[in-house]
């Protein structure tokens, strides 16, 4: 049941934020989702740490406390308005315009409103969004919906966050020190999202993804070298090298927090046209959770067999995804969602795939 709730939330919230936010701050607003997620993870880690000492019923308290944020989410879902795009698509055009005027703080919304109406009229002609998303003109968005969440998990971040105590203990940390170190990484991840919120609508999505990728590669290679040399000869790390490893891992988490963490959700939520937007986000969430499950189940096996090479394994994937962004992801900064399809028509690679008539349909 928790899985169903998480799946629904991950599908709906990024779409809601993308449709409600003004174009010039859409990236920053959407990244509030990642900020809330990381704060939730950090809070959950702290609760788990505290309740683990309450034998034998601490785990019941930990699990039961999840009802509090769930209750707040339910109340919030009742109180917040529908998005203008959703209202217009369902024929409630006047109500949609009033909501648009209210969230924009002005009555001068005619151009944006008209774009939504035209997008809605085209979306109504699509009867099967999941079938439509497979069409050639939606191919670039579909590929991004699959690859962005896949790459997000293959950075190795979930492995570090989920198994931080195991990871740090394997480096020679004591039990309590490993828990403190994992709490530290959670705090760094939450705070690093603030960097992306401030920078994403100024520097753009590509700049953050590429810079984050380069930083993560560097950090993983450094950790692999230290572990490979020191653990291979001494069997455990000295205090000095242990501190270096923790610092470098925190830098890795910091880079993930300003790049692939939030943008792995933001980019897929803003690139789809209205007629396939919900279907596209559903695919994004499904792929993300699928690879989360795969990595979570296989990480300990990989750690036992690859040892320090686990960091090189993930560094290889980060290299692939950084090149992927450099070559295939257009910049979506300051582009209205209703006009996003034009980016693919102008891109050096995707324009060879998309049919020319999609410009007419999307304009």
UniProtKB/TrEMBL annotation:
Q: Tell me yes or no: is 4Fe-4S among this UniProt entry's keywords.
A: no
What family is reported? Belongs to the major facilitator superfamily. Sugar transporter (TC 2.A.1.1) family.
Any GO MF annotation of the entry? symporter activity
Looking up PANTHER family in the UniProt record yields: SOLUTE CARRIER FAMILY 2, FACILITATED GLUCOSE TRANSPORTER, SUGAR TRANSPORT PROTEIN 7
Q: Which GO terms describe its cellular component?
A: membrane
Q: Where in the cell is it found?
A: Membrane
Give one Pfam family, short name only.
Answer: Sugar_tr
UniProt keywords (A-Z) are: Membrane, Sugar transport, Symport, Transmembrane, Transmembrane helix, Transport
Gene this protein is translated from: LOC110738255
How the protein sits in the membrane? Multi-pass membrane protein
Major facilitator superfamily (MFS) profile domain: residues covered: 1-333
Q: InterPro entries from the xrefs? A: MFS_dom (IPR020846), MFS_STP/MST-like_plant (IPR044778), MFS_sugar_transport-like (IPR005828), MFS_trans_sf (IPR036259), STP/PLT_plant (IPR045262), Sugar/inositol_transpt (IPR003663), Sugar_transporter_CS (IPR005829)
According to UniProt, the name of this protein is Major facilitator superfamily (MFS) profile domain-containing protein
């Amino acid at each position: 049941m928790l899985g169903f709730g998480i799946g629904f939330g991950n599908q709906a919230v990024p779409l809601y934020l993308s449709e409600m936010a003004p174009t010039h701050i859409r990236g920053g607003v959407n990244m509030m989702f990642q900020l809330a997620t990381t704060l939730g993870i950090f809070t959950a880690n702290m609760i788990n740490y505290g309740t683990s000492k309450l034998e034998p019923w601490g785990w019941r308290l930990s699990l039961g406390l999840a009802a509090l944020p769930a209750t707040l989410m339910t109340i919030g879902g009742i109180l917040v308005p529908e998005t203008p795009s959703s209202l217009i698509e369902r024929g409630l055009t006047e109500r949609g315009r009033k909501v648009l005027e209210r969230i924009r703080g002005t009555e001068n919304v005619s151009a944006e409103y008209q774009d939504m109406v035209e997008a809605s009229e085209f979306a109504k002609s699509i009867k099967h969004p999941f079938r439509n998303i497979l069409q050639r003109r939606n191919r670039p968005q579909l590929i991004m919906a699959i690859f962005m969440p896949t790459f997000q998990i293959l950075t190795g971040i979930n492995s570090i966050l989920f198994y931080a105590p195991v990871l740090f203990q394997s480096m020679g940390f004591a039990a309590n020190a490993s828990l403190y170190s994992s709490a530290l990484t959670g705090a760094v991840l939450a705070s690093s999202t603030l960097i992306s919120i401030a920078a994403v609508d100024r520097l753009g999505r590509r700049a953050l993804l590429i810079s984050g990728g380069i930083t993560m590669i560097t950090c993983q290679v450094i950790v692999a070298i230290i572990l490979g040399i020191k653990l291979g000869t001494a069997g455990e790390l000295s205090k000095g090298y242990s501190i270096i490893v923790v610092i470098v891992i925190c830098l890795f988490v910091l880079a993930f927090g300003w790049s692939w963490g939030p943008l792995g959700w933001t980019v897929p939520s803003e690139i789809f046209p209205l007629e396939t937007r919900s279907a596209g986000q559903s695919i994004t969430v499904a792929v993300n959770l699928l690879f989360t499950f795969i990595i979570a189940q296989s990480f300990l096996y990989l750690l036992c067999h690859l040892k320090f090479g686990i960091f090189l394994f993930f560094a290889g994937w980060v290299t692939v995804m950084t090149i992927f962004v450099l070559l295939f992801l257009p910049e979506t900064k300051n582009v209205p969602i209703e006009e996003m399809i034009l980016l693919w028509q102008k891109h050096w690679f995707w324009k060879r795939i998309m049919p020319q008539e999609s410009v007419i349909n999307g304009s």
